[in-house]
Each structure stands twice: as structure tokens, then as C-alpha cells.
């Protein structure tokens, strides 16, 4: 799990993407799906109409790891517990086209 603020290239992508969120649940076609990350184009920043949702397997290159401290470590632990519990009930989102 990459920290918020990490910068990545996605597979087949040419634009740097900054991770904004981990584990977003998105309503798609009247059902909730779970992605590993949401992100925005770097250095442009967040445009609410252009949020990208993607999974770990869509990442090609990690250019920068975001800030990590004891709060981040605690979040990772709690998030993994959630993923292995309630998170299993939510379908995993599938990225169907190249992003970034």
C-alpha cells in the first residue's frame, strides 16, 4: 500500500499520477466497487471531474513514496483488517482502459 502523496506512472500511461486516497468505494452502474487507489494528474492537482480510480496491478513505476509515519502504519493495519472483514463483501473495481 502506497501512502497518500505518492507519485506513480500507470501501465501504458504518460502522465504522472498522485495518490489521493486508498480504498475508495465508488458507485458504478448502481453497485459499489472497491479500488485500491484514487488519484489525480500531477502537478495539476485535484479536478473533481477527473478523479482516476486504479488498483495496485495498474501501477507501472513508483516515482515517489509519500510521507509515512506511525499514523500511516496504524492506518495500514486497520485498513488491512477491514479488507479481510467487511471489505471482502465489496466487489473489486476493474480498470478497463489505460489511465494517465
List the helices and strands and how they pair.
Layout: E1 7-10, E2 17-22, E3 25-28, E4 31-34, E5 37-41, E6 52-54, E7 59-64, H1 70-84, E8 91-92
Parallel strand pairs: 4-8
Antiparallel strand pairs: 1-2, 1-7, 2-5, 3-4, 5-6
Description:
- The chain is an alpha+beta fold and 100 residues long.
- 15% of the residues lie in helices and 34% in strands.
- It contains one helix and eight strands, in the order βββββββαβ.
- It has a five-stranded antiparallel β-sheet with strand order 6-5-2-1-7, with no helix packed on it. Strands 3-4-8 form a three-stranded mixed β-sheet, with no helix packed on it.
- Strand 1 (7-10) and strand 2 form a beta hairpin.
- InterPro entries: DUF4176.
- Pfam families: DUF4176 (PF13780).
- This is Type II secretion protein.
Count of DSSP strands: 8
Spell out the helices and strands N to C: EEEEEEEHE
Largest sheet: 5 strands, antiparallel
Give the fraction of residues assigned to helices: 10-25%
Amino acid at each position: 500500500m502506497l501512502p497518500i502523496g505518492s507519485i506513480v506512472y500507470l501501465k501504458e500511461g504518460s502522465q504522472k499520477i498522485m495518490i489521493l486516497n486508498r480504498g475508495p468505494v465508488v458507485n458504478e452502474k448502481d453497485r459499489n466497487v472497491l479500488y485500491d487507489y484514487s488519484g489525480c494528474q500531477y502537478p495539476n492537482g485535484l479536478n473533481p471531474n477527473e478523479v482516476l480510480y486504479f488498483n495496485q496491478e495498474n501501477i507501472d513505476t513508483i516515482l515517489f513514496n509519500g510521507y509515512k509515519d506511525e499514523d500511516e502504519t496504524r492506518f495500514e493495519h486497520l485498513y488491512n483488517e477491514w479488507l479481510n472483514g467487511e471489505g471482502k463483501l465489496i466487489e473489486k473495481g476493474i480498470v478497463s482502459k489505460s489511465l494517465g
